[in-house]
Design brief:
two-stranded antiparallel ribbon; single chain; 7 strands; 5-stranded mixed β-sheet; alpha+beta
């Protein structure tokens, strides 16, 4: 079919990139909920589905047939994702109507009286496609919502609550639904804010960004476990319980460190985590220890990644309340008024007592590092060059962070 002397399908396919930009701009201008979406989502998922719909319209016109179920799969997946992110269904359907109308305007541009039969047939094709899109999108959205609503009350959430509270699990062994595992990997996550959660006024945009981050982390965890895992996550992190009948490797491509790294990549934020394997009755204690470890990692300035108790034994022990903790911290009290000395000392220790690397990190001359280390020795009586003093300095720094 042709309009104004040009074949409709090839013309429309050639116009897809430019028309996609115009459709997306119109959605941002006309629909506040879309304007509040993260920019990453607008340029990614939303632009992709607009392009897919425009190319689908060209195929429907060229081959003079309705869309197939396979051709509507991407729209169904997109609708389910928008449901998980809390985008209202009426906004999604309006977006499809806006895109269809703009596609039709571009197609019919310059139509001549002799083009009337083609115009009428194309209009009929559009109406059929619009009905198909409305049905596919609505059904997928409502089904996703049904699943989300049921998950809030199903047995997995009840099992998670019982495990975290240390309650008896007898009722789960007798009832249908999820059964308790013999052992669990308790994983505590700390998720940094995504850029799209920051710098925005409170509203649906920030909320969508937060839910998007959580959904991506859950997807990574579910793929790793091969089934939906028990999670209690919010925008800052939370607790995950994975059945672990066999010990899970820490390192390697299928290890837990790789799992945390993959979750960080998927969420687009740094992730700190702590893990411990425990039998069901020991889950509350394991989660409590994990929470302390993640907190220690944050307070002591350690990089993101996965930690276990063995990685922070000194910090963990020194974080226990005691008079010795205050005494250790006071060893560095003479440096309180000299923040440049304290910063140099911390950097020097972090970089393995390498004066040149420390100087480069602080943008100073290596001789300045030497001078500051000597001043620290004079003020505190402690020098990192003396092994016995180094132990006290390290402990004192940990005590300061703990307090």
């Amino acid at each position: 079919m042709a309009i104004a002397g040009r074949p409709v399908a090839p013309y429309l396919r050639a116009r897809v990139p430019a028309l996609t930009g115009r459709v997306v701009a119109r959605l941002l201008a006309d629909l506040p909920v879309y304007a509040d979406l993260p920019r990453e989502e607008i340029s990614g998922d939303i632009a992709d589905i607009v392009q897919h719909n425009l190319r689908l319209f060209a195929d429907v016109v060229e081959y003079r047939r309705p869309a197939t179920e396979a051709e509507l799969a991407q729209q169904r997946d997109s609708a389910a994702q928008r449901a998980e992110e809390g985008v209202p269904l009426d906004a999604i359907l309006t977006a499809y109507q806006v895109g269809t109308a703009m596609c039709w305007q571009e197609t019919a541009k310059g139509a001549l009286p002799g083009d009337l039969p083609a115009v009428l047939e194309i209009m009929e094709r559009i109406m059929v496609l619009q009905r198909q899109l409305t049905s596919a999108v609505s059904n997928a959205y409502l089904e996703a919502h049904r699943i989300l609503d049921s998950q809030e009350h199903d047995g997995r959430h009840a099992l998670l609550s019982a495990l975290l509270a240390g309650e008896s699990l007898d009722r789960f062994t007798r009832a249908t639904g999820p059964r308790p595992a013999a052992r669990y990997l308790a994983l505590t996550l700390a998720l940094a804010p995504h850029p799209d959660e920051q710098g925005q006024s409170p509203g649906p945009g920030a909320g969508v960004a937060a839910r998007r981050k959580i959904r991506r982390v859950r997807s990574v965890l579910d793929r790793f476990a091969g089934a939906p895992v028990l999670t209690a996550l919010d925008t800052s992190g939370g607790t995950v319980l994975l059945p672990a009948p066999e010990p899970l490797p820490w390192h390697g491509p299928d290890g837990l460190c790789a799992l945390v790294d993959e979750a960080a990549r998927a969420a687009g934020v740094p992730v700190s985590a702590a893990a411990e394997t425990a039998e069901p009755e020991a889950v509350p204690a394991a989660v409590a220890r994990n929470t302390e470890i993640v907190d220690l990692v944050a307070r002591t300035g350690r990089p993101p990644g996965l930690y276990r108790l063995a990685d922070v034994l000194l910090e963990y022990q020194l974080s226990r309340p005691s008079e010795a903790l205050h005494g250790l911290a006071q060893l560095l009290a003479p440096l309180e008024a000299k923040p440049e000395l304290l910063q140099t000392l911390e950097t020097y220790l972090e970089l393995g007592l390498d004066r040149r690397t420390t100087a480069a990190a602080l943008h100073i001359h290596p001789n300045t590092v030497d001078y500051r280390i000597r001043r620290i020795d004079r003020l505190t009586g402690l020098s990192p060059s003396r092994p016995a003093d180094l132990q006290h300095i390290s402990a004192a720094l940990v005590a300061r962070h703990s307090l």
